[in-house]
Design a protein that fits this description.
single chain, 394 residues, alpha/beta, Rossmann fold, N-(1-d-carboxylethyl)-l-norvaline Dehydrogenase, domain 2, 2 domains, six-stranded parallel sheet, three-stranded mixed sheet, 17 helices, 52% helix
């Protein structure tokens, strides 16, 4: 069995590639960075250090190769593999759709009827279904029946923390946490379902997608944006701050109230889930840079994303969301000269004001109460930062 994985970053190497290799797949990494492609092809292996609170394990991942995404041979790879996975970031899926569409055309031209399954492992609700729609926009209509019959797009929820251990793109070594979760929609596969270690099958995937997005991702992002205002560097530093901790925990409880109501979850079980996430955040071995977590704030402020969707749903269910609003406000305040999205937000606020920027960025039907709640928190941040150098706005 062969698998082509797009994105040879930390998640790609530390979780997806590792899992597929251990499941017996020949793994081909596809990436834009030629240095990392060369490193994989030269070394033919890399190491993953899997850690928990009091132990670790080193695993050598072998039987791997790599190809540059822009290499024309990528279409041959797509037409010949059994499985495609991605960990490229949501914003790259549109470009990836064009590449996959051309590979599918070649697969048809080769008269291959071997099923191909594609799993987009991204922080987006139903990322694979989104990718399928983008592929169908590009793929000529005469190929649509083939795609429907032979190509599966499998939605999933993926959960693990893999911090950035260094900035050397040629160093393939990765640190990964022991906890990992890969849950897929069992009904979307074509042909025989591949045997992948620890992959869980579900017929109620929305629950797991939203549980992860509204809890882990929401809490992670809020801790990062609040922590950066106080000039912390890592998630551990931020979460140790008692005021930030209370806001993050309360925000996760607010988003949790939505899940409890929507999916009839047991409240105590979900509170235990939140506690486990805090335990993961606190693991110093998995120290993660706040700037990495905070990057691409426009994406994170999207109407279907981790900061705004819980607020919209709280409004729908008439539930409180004041702490979620503080997280969204902190994201709007975030300004990093190395992050183009944060620069765009700052420029918009200066040009059209916070209210119009909020509505434009979020593309959401926030009611006046929701808008006021976020803007009020934002103005408090600005006011406190002007008044006190100690950044005690929270």
């Amino acid at each position: 069995m062969k698998a082509l994985h797009f994105g040879a970053g930390n998640i790609g190497r530390g979780f997806i590639g590792k899992t597929l290799s251990e499941s017996g797949f020949e793994v081909i990494f596809a990436d834009l960075n030629q240095d990392i492609v060369n490193a994989i092809n030269n070394n033919k292996e890399y190491s993953v250090k899997t850690v928990s609170c009091n132990r670790y394990k080193i695993t050598n991942i072998k039987n791997i190769t790599a190809i540059n995404v822009n290499d024309l041979d990528i279409f041959k790879k797509i037409s010949s593999v059994d499985l495609i996975t991605t960990a490229v970031g949501v914003n790259a899926l549109n470009n990836l759709a064009n590449i996959i569409a051309k590979g599918i055309i070649l697969k048809v031209q080769n008269e291959s009827v071997i099923p191909l399954n594609i799993i987009a492992c991204e922080n987006k609700i139903k990322a694979s279904s989104f990718l399928k729609k983008e592929v169908l926009k590009i793929l000529p209509i005469r190929y649509h029946n083939y795609l429907s019959e032979c190509v599966g797009f499998i939605d999933c929820s993926i959960d693990t923390i893999i911090p950035l251990v260094n900035y050397n793109k040629c160093d393939l070594f990765v640190i990964a946490e022991e906890f990992k979760e890969w849950i897929v929609n069992i009904h979307q596969f074509k042909g025989t379902i591949p045997k992948i270690i620890d992959m869980q099958f579900s017929d109620n995937l929305n629950l797991f997608i939203e549980r992860k997005l509204f809890t882990l991702n929401t809490g992670h992002a809020i801790a990062a944006y609040l922590g950066l205002i106080k000039k912390y560097r890592t998630i551990q530093e931020a979460i140790k701050d008692p005021k930030i901790r209370i806001i993050v925990q309360s925000a996760m409880q607010e988003s949790g109230a939505i899940l409890i109501k929507r999916y009839n979850l047991n409240q105590n079980d979900h509170l235990d889930y939140i506690k486990k996430i805090f335990f993961r955040f606190e693991n110093s071995i998995l120290s993660d840079c706040l700037e990495r977590i905070a990057r691409n704030p426009i994406q994170k402020l999207g109407k279907e994303e981790r900061l705004i969707k819980p607020i919209l749903d709280s409004i729908q269910y008439k539930l409180p969301y004041s702490h979620l609003s503080k997280g969204a406000a902190a994201a709007l305040h975030y300004c990093n000269p190395n992050d183009l999205e944060s620069i765009k937000i700052s420029s918009l606020i200066k040009k059209i004001g916070i209210k119009k920027t909020l509505i434009k960025i979020c593309s959401a039907s926030l009611n006046e109460e929701g808008i006021y709640s976020i803007i009020s928190s934002y103005n408090t941040i600005v006011k406190e930062l002007k008044e006190i150098e100690s950044y005690n706005f929270i």
